[in-house]
Amino acid sequence: MRKHLVLRVVSKLLMPFILLFALYVQFHGDFGPGGGFQAGVIFGSTFILYALVYGVETARRVARDWVLRLFMITGVLIYIGVGYVALFLGGPFLDYNTLSAHDPVHGQHLGILLVELGVGITVAATMVTIFFAFASRGRG
Amino acid sequence: MDIPADIPGLYNYWIVVVLMMVGFYVVISRTNLVKKIVGLNIFQTSVFILYISMGKVKGGTAPILVDHPVTYSNPLPHVLILTAIVVGVATTALGAALIVRIKEAYGTVEEDEIQAMEPDE
Amino acid sequence: MIAHNLPALQVVLPLIAAPLCLLLRGSNWPWAFATLVSWAAFAISVALLSQVLDSGTISYAMGGWAPPWGIEYRVDTVNAFVLLIVSAIGAVVLPYARVSVGHEIPAERHPAFFTALLLSLTGLLGVTITGDAFNLFVFLEISSLSSYVLIALGRDRRALTASLQYLIMGTIGATFIVIGIGLLYMVTGTLNMADLAARIPAAVDSRTLLAAFAFLTVGTTLKLALFPLHSWLPNAYAYAPSVVTGFLAATATKVSVYILLRFFFSVLGTEYTFERLTLEQLLIPLAAVAVLVCSTVAIYQNDVKRMLAYSSVAQIGYIILGIGFVSTTGLTAAIVHLFNHAVMKGGLFLALGCVMLRVGSVRLDAFAGLGRRMPLTMFAFVLGGLSLIGVPLTVGFISKWYLVQAALEQGAWILAIVILVGSLLAVIYIWRVVEVAYLRPPPADAAPVSEAPLSMLIPTWILIGASIYFGIDTSLTVGIARRAAETLLGVTP
Amino acid sequence: MAFGILHLRNLFAVVMLSGIYSLLSAGLFVTLDAVDVAFTEAAVGGGIATMLMLAMLSLVGDAERTREGDFRVVPLLLVLATGALLLYGTLDMPDYGDANAPINKHVVPRYLEESGKEIGVPNVVTSVLASYRGYDTMGELSVIFTAGVGVLLLIGRFRRPGGGK
C-alpha cells in the first residue's frame, strides 16, 4: 500500500469536503436541488472512495458490518417512525401537520427534515453495505 | 389534429422511444447476463426521460419557488422518477449480486452455456 | 383510533416489523416475531373486510392530503378479499416456516430471511390496498425484489438462474407497467385510480390511451405468468425454498391478477376494455391454450414441484377465462378461484415441503412408498390433488362449477369442454404421483422416513382442510366473490 | 441528444457506456428543468450503478464471449412491434412542452400554488416528494432496504452463530 501516495493524500484531503458537501445537500434540499437520497449517495461514496484507496479490509474496520446494518435499519425506522408518531398524535399516517401543536407549516418542516434524514442514513449505509459485499466477495 | 402538424411537437418523444427500444432489444436478444442487466438499465433510463419530457413546460424553469411569478415545469414527474431511479438501482444491485453467484456456481455468465449445463427435465 | 387507521396499519405494520426483525438474533426470535406480525396482519384484514362489507368502500388519505394530491388507500370488496387471501396465507405459512427454513437455509441468515419474507408480504399487501397507480408500482417492486431474493435462496444452483430470469422478466414487466402508468398520467393528469376512472371517458379516442392500455396489459400478464409469458414461473417455483414456493404460489400471481382486474374494470372501465377493445377475444383463447398446454406439460414433469408449477400456470388460465367472460358469474368464478387456488396450491406446496424435509427430494422417484411412510402428508396431498382436479365437495369443484356455468351462459360450450379436459389432464398428473406414492414399494435401500413434524403438518392441514370446508360451505367465499364481481362490473369505485 | 443515440447504437455493449449514457441523460434532465432528477441520475446512474457494474465485472471477469454478430429475428420483431405501438401512442400526445396538456392542468397546479403556504419549502420537488407523496418515498426507501437485505443474503458475509468473529 505504499504505492499511490498522491492518490492517498489527495483523497484524504478531499474526503472532509465531500462529507461536508453531503451534509449541505442533506439539509439544503428544501431550497435547492438535493435531499436525503442524493446526500446519502454522496456520503456513502466517501466511504467507498476510502475503501478503494486504503483497501476494503481497512475500510471495513472503520465501518463495521454491524454498524452499517444498524444504520440501515435506523434510517428506515426513522421514516416509518415519523409516520407512526403522526398516527399516535391523532392524524393519518405520515401527517406531518400533527407534529407541531401550534403551526402546521412548522410541523411540515420538521417532518420533512426527519424523513429526509432517515432517507439519507439508510441510503448511505445501504450503498456502503452493498459495495463491501461485492468488494469482499472472492477474498474469503 | 392531423398528423403532419404533430411532428415537431412529438419529435422529442420519438427519440425517447428509439432509445427505449435499443435497451429493450439488448435485454431480450443478448445471451450474456451482464449485458442483459445493462440493457435493463438503458431501458429504464429511457423511460425516465419519457416521464421527464412530459413534465417540461415551454419557457418553464425548475420547480423551485421564487418570489416573482414565473412558469415552472411540472414537478410531479420529477418526484416519480426520483423514486423510479432508486428502484432501478436497487434492481441493478440485486441483479449484479445474482450474477456474481451464478458465476461462482457455473463459471460462466452466458445464458446458453448455462442452459447447456442443465439438461431440462 | 386503531379502527380508523386500519388501512394504513395493514401495510405499515409488517413494514416496520421488517427492519425490526433484522435486529433480532438467533433464528427462533425472528421467526416468532414474523409469525406474530403475520397473525396481526391477518386480523387486520379480517377487520377490514367486515368493515367494507358493513359500510362500503373505505378511503384513507396518507399524510392527510386529500386525493388526488396525496396518496389514497382505497379498500372495497375486491381488494379486501385479496388482502384476506394474502394475509391468511402469510399467517399459515409462517408457523410452518420454522422447521422448514431451519432445514433449508443456513442459520446465520434467518433474521434476514424473515425480513425479506415480511417485506414480500408488505409489498403484496401494499399493491393490493393502494388507490394510487404509482404507489402500486413502488410496492410491486418491494414485493418483486424480495421475492427474487427469496427464490434465489433455494439450495439448488438452478435457483440462481431461475431467480435472475424472473428478475429480468419481472423488471421488464414492471417497466411496461410504468410506461403504461406514465401514458395514463399523460392523458389524464392524475395518478389516483378513482380520479383516473373519472377522467378516462373524456379521452377514450386517444391513441395514447390505447398504448397505455397495451403496456399495462402486457406488463401485468408478464407478472402473472399468463401463457405465453409464463416461462419464468416453473423454474422459479421449482427451485425456491419450500416455504417461499408455498407463499408465492398462493399469493404473488393472485395479486397480479388483482392488478389486472383493477386496471381493466375499475380504472379503464368495462366499457373501454371489453366493449371498445374486446379484449376478451384475446384473453379467452390465450387462457384456453394455457389450460390445455400447461396441464399437458405438467404430465411430463418428473419433478413434482415443477409439475405443480405448470399446473399453476394452467390454473391462472382458468382465472383469466373467468375474467374473459365479463359476466357476473364469470368474474365470481375468477375471484372465488383466486381464493380457492391459493388455498389448495398453498396446501399442496406445503405438503411437498414436508416431503422435502424428510426425503430430501421431490422428484417423482422419491415418492415411492411414501403413502405408507408419511401417511398424513400424502393424504393431504391426495386431498389437495382432488381439489385441483375439481372433484365435488372440494373448492376446485366450486370454481369449475361457476366457470362452466359462465361458459354455458354465453353458449361457449367449447370452453366448457376445455375446462373439463383440463380437469382430466389434472387427473393424469395427480395420479402419477399418487400411483408412485401408494402403489410402488419403497426402494429396498431407502433410509427410514418418519412423518413430518406437527409444526409443518398443522399448517398444511389447515389449508387442505380449508379447501374441503369451503368446498362444502360456499356461502362465505362465493358470497363475497359475487359482491366483489358486482362491484367491478357495476358502479366502479 | 442525437449524439447520444449514435454512440449508443455503435457501442452499447460496454458497461462504461451505460455510465456515460446515464451522465448524458442527467445533462438532458437539466435542460428539461429536472435538476433534482439530474442530480440523482448523475450520482446513481453514473456513479453507483456503474461502480456496481465494475465491481461485478471484476468478480465475473470481463472476457465476454463475443457472439454479438448474431442477428436475432424474433426479439427484433418484438422490439419493433413495441416501438411501433409506442410511436402510435405518441401521436395523440400533447405537444412537447405544451403548458395546456392535461398533466399541467390537473393536480399539479395545487402543488405549485399552495405548497408555499401549506409546507413552506421553496423546492416543490422536495415538498411533493417528502410530504404530498411522502408515502411513495417511504416505499422507495423500503425498496432500497430490500435491496440491501437482498444483497446481504445473497453475497454478504454473516457470522456463524457462536463462531467467533
Write the SSE topology.
The complex is a heterotetramer of chains A (140), B (121), C (493) and D (165).
Chain A: H1 5-28, H2 36-54, H3 56-62, H4 65-88, H5 104-136
Helix pairs in contact in A: 1-2, 2-3, 2-5, 4-5
Chain B: H1 3-29, H2 33-55, H3 75-106, H4 111-117
Helix pairs in contact in B: 1-2, 2-3
Chain C: H1 6-23, H2 28-55, E1 58-61, E2 72-75, H3 77-104, H4 110-129, H5 133-152, H6 158-188, H7 193-199, H8 207-223, H9 232-239, H10 242-267, H11 270-276, H12 280-299, H13 304-324, H14 328-359, H15 370-373, H16 375-389, H17 395-409, H18 413-439, H19 454-472, H20 475-489
Antiparallel strand pairs in C: 1-2
Helix pairs in contact in C: 1-2, 1-4, 2-3, 2-4, 3-4, 3-10, 3-14, 3-19, 3-20, 4-5, 4-10, 5-6, 5-10, 6-8, 6-9, 8-10, 9-10, 9-13, 10-13, 10-14, 12-13, 12-18, 13-14, 13-18, 14-16, 14-17, 14-19, 14-20, 16-18, 16-19, 17-18, 17-19
Q: How is this structure best described in words?
A:
The complex is a heterotetramer of chains A (140), B (121), C (493) and D (165). Helix content of chain B is 74%, strand content 0%. The relative contact order of chain B is 0.12. In chain B, helix 1 packs antiparallel against helix 2 and helix 2 runs antiparallel to helix 3. Chain B has 121 residues and is mainly alpha-helical. Chain C is an all-alpha fold and 493 residues long. Chain C has a domain of 216 residues. In chain C, 77% of the residues lie in helices and 2% in strands. Chain C has a two-stranded antiparallel ribbon with strand order 1-2. In chain C, helix 9 packs antiparallel against helix 10. Chain C is globular and about 75 Å long. Chain D has 165 residues and is mostly helical. Among the domains of chain D are: 61 residues, no CATH class; 52 residues.
Distance between termini of chain A? 20 Å
Which strand order do you get reading across the main beta sheet of chain C? 1-2
Strand content of chain A: under 5%
| Spatial shape of chain A | elongated
Low-confidence stretches of chain A: none
Helix/strand order of chain C, N-terminal first:
HHEEHHHHHHHHHHHHHHHHHH
**Could you spell the SSE succession of chain A in H and E letters?**
HHHHH
Rg of chain C: 21 Å
**Separate helix tally of chain C:** 20
Sheet-strand content of chain C, in percent, reads under 5%
What is the chains' assembly state? Answer: heterotetramer
Largest interface: B-D, 81 and 87 residues
Secondary structure: helix percent of chain A: over 70%
